[in-house]
């Protein structure tokens, strides 16, 4: 191995950002807007996993699948949608949204805000210092006057099952960048990636088998996973709950892969995709040089300062802090921390009280999430179980969507379910879950109600238009009010 060469003179910036995913770019933007100088270090593509192998390509691929399913739920339209999806057209659409994995546009964004991009692998080298190693082995040292923001994201977590390397499994990478449809695909893992990948590849023509250890999308209310499992089964996927993979083999790298399951049965497929969670991208970023453990999630305070590091200079944002592995939540952290960095740099006190300008309070109370399955599953805040565990006195209100005429007009025989989790002491919403076609666009109304802690007495005055799917709000709130009235006060 050749010795590292290059410029040993350090370049000083106010802020150094490690990782140019959506989160890194947002904190850079916020710090630049406050007049701070910013260096951004990226070793792969500016835009990160989200832009090229996660959110964007998966939704670009899923949308045609869901659009066709939506059309088939409407009499008159159904008859017009008789053919198969044009997979070449679907892949071309995906390629457009990922700009053919060319990041020059996003690099230009960094330039436009006045941030300097350093391409290469960044590692901390003691407090406030980062070394960037380029592909050709040359190095550059950067120092930070005010802050280093770690936004290096996460990688797929592959379980240590015998034969997993030989099987050469897909992860979210091939699951989103492949332009060929495997005839038989096994998806392992029933979280967000698993259910979306199963929906997508079944929709594109694979025969999908989804193996989940327990219920699907287990962080949501149980009915969400049940309805998503039902939708997948109806689309032709084989959903097996409680199934575990114990071994894999693929003696011919070009041939099929065989999975052994915990009941000793075997399953053959053309590809296997592991969607078994994420691991932080912190194993090789020099955490040991500042007394932290390489490969660990980074524990942060409400302003996203890393706990246990002296001097208030190290921030961790996005997936890497394990608060909520979602782009929108990471970007919220980036905006908040970017402002906190600028405020501290100016020697001003931060406003880190709950819901303050420099607090990421929504991470605890109002994280919204949509799974783009068929039906869609959307939730914000706490599930009933989480609310009870947190000690709240709650009431749940449950309704099927077909209570609302708007839902039936949207899709004939609309199938979906909604739940409110009400805090009985404060009469506000702690959580809301919607499952059904088109509910992704309904979720923000619930997010406003939960984050705003809008009293139910006032929410009653937020009228949904007739006839929209949103009318479900009227029926949910009315059902709650009726239940709360005692027989004596109820109208005769
Ligand atoms: C299949 C899939 C679908 C998803 N869909 C959604 C969705 O619809 N909505 C949603 O909100 N979330 C979704 N997510 C989650 C979302 O992708 C992540 O939460 C998001 O990418 C996190 O952003 P980030 O900037 O923290 O990390 P990333 O997007 O992972 O970016 C981190 C960047 O840091 C770089 N980097 C890492 N280490 C170094 C280093 N040492 N030096 C220099 N650069 C480095 C990487 O190359 C990368 O560019 C999905 C995830 C997956 C896997
Ligand atoms: N639309 C979206 O917002 C969206 C879509 C996809 C992913 N994401 C986010 O990305 C993150 C990663 O998603 P993910 O699905 O990879 O992780 P996850 O942690 O949500 O789910 C992983 C699943 O794999 C299972 N699992 C773990 N080890 C296993 C094993 N050995 N065998 C079988 N099953 C196993 C777990 O029980 C879990 O249900 C999540 O936080 C998710 O919310 C978001």
TrEMBL record:
Pfam families from the UniProt entry: Pyr_redox_2, Pyr_redox_dim
Domain FAD/NAD(P)-binding: 13-328
Binding site for NAD(+): 189-196, 277
Keyword Iron: no
Keyword Protein transport in annotation: no
Disulfide bonds: 50-55
A GO BP annotation: 2-oxoglutarate metabolic process
Cofactor note: Binds 1 FAD per subunit.
Binding site for FAD: 59, 122, 152-154, 319
A molecular-function term among this protein's GO annotations: flavin adenine dinucleotide binding
InterPro entries reported in the protein's UniProt record: Class-I_Pyr_Nuc-Dis_Oxidored, FAD/NAD-bd_sf, FAD/NAD-binding_dom, FAD/NAD-linked_Rdtase_dimer_sf, Pyr_nuc-diS_OxRdtase, Pyr_nucl-diS_OxRdtase_dimer
Record key words, sorted: FAD, Flavoprotein, NAD, Nucleotide-binding
Cofactor(s) the protein requires to work: FAD
Positions of the Pyridine nucleotide-disulphide oxidoreductase dimerisation domain: 367-472
PANTHER family associated with the record: DIHYDROLIPOYL DEHYDROGENASE, MITOCHONDRIAL, DISULFIDE OXIDOREDUCTASE
Family: Belongs to the class-I pyridine nucleotide-disulfide oxidoreductase family.
Name this protein carries in UniProt: Pyridine nucleotide-disulfide oxidoreductase
